[in-house]
Amino acid sequence: MVSFELEQLYSWINSFLWPFMRILALVGTAPLFSESSIPLRVKVGLSALLAMAVAPALPAPPDISPASYQGLWITAQQVFIGIALGLTMRIVFAAVQTAGEFIGLQMGLSFASFFDPATGANTAVLARLMNVIAMLLFLALNGHLLMLGGLVRTFEILPAVAGFNLDGLGVLFEWSAQVMVSGMLLALPLIIVLLTISLALGILNRTAQQLSVFAVGFPISLMVGLILLTVVLPQTAPFISRLFDSGHQAMARLVHALAGL
Fold first, then answer.
1. 103-145: per-residue pLDDT in tens?
2. What's the pLDDT at 234?
3. Could you read off the pLDDT of 32-84 as tens digits, one per residue?
4. 143-157 vs 6-29: helix crossing angle, rounded to 10
5. CA dist., res. 75 & res. 120, Å (int)
6. Cα radius of gyration (the chain)
7. pLDDT for the residue 110
8. Which terminus of the chain has fewer Cβ atoms in its 10 Å neighbourhood, N or C?
9. pTM
10. Could you write out the three-class secondary structure of the chain?
């Protein structure tokens, strides 16, 4: 007859529950995995499979009741850590979308927007296009596998029962500045050219006032912007690739900071 104690049952539950909550929180917030087109059952199933694969290699957790205050607090900590890690990589894609917003504004396409189910708000067409390009590049470079690998390594640096240091959130706040910095750097080549065209049209309007800038300027800006996009977009892959590497490094820094290292 097989028998076990209640403490053993708690240990078995916790060895799966706490990694599962951290993984599920990352899957729910990280790029690619958190897309609304992916069914919720698939996300939960993927998180459960990863948790079952990771749990045997982790140290045995303490026999704490999952329904106790201490167990619920540890569960909440795992959710918080997973969300923080997912937002770290989400900032990379937010920077790419910001670049698309800047470019669309200069081209005069800021009004061309549609509802994006991924963000739950209206998104410019160019921002959505650049987000799709970044996502395809993320898959081509196995960025999703590197992100999951980094998540698995967090259990060694920051175990489930170790708690975390709130001062580590400063790394996330510092990294969030890349939304504007990297977004502007990515859009800078097109912005410079389009601003130069706008300046030239403004001078032309002052010298030849019978010429309507609103009738001529929009087609010129749109045509030049589309030509520049065909030239610049294929050259953005190295920059976005380095941005992905910086995102993975930011995840590592965040985990070390939360662990107080």
1. 888 777 766 666 666 556 666 778 888 888 888 888 888 888 8
2. 83
3. 888 878 888 888 888 888 888 888 887 777 777 777 788 788 888 888 888 88
4. 140
5. 28
6. 24
7. 67
8. N
9. 0.82
10. CCCCCHHHHHHHHHHHHHHHHHHHHHHHHCCCCCCCCCCHHHHHHHHHHHHHHHHHHCCCCCCCCCCCHHHHHHHHHHHHHHHHHHHHHHHHHHHHHHHHHHHHHHHCCCCCEEEECCCCEEEEHHHHHHHHHHHHHHHHCCHHHHHHHHHHHHHHHCCHHHCCCHHHHHHHHHHCCHHHHHHHHHHHHHHHHHHHHHHHHHHHHHHCCCCCHHHHHHHHHHHHHHHHHHHHHHHCHHHHHHHHHHHHHHHHHHHHHHCCC
Cα dihedral 101, 105, 106, 111 sign: positive
Placement of tokens 């160019």 in the chain: 126
**Contact, 100 vs 127, CB < 8 A?**
yes
φ/ψ bin of 35: left (φ > 0), alpha (ψ from -120 to 50), beta (otherwise):
beta
Nearest to 86 by CA among 254, 213, 257, 258: 254
State residue 61 phi and psi, 5-degree precision: -75, 160
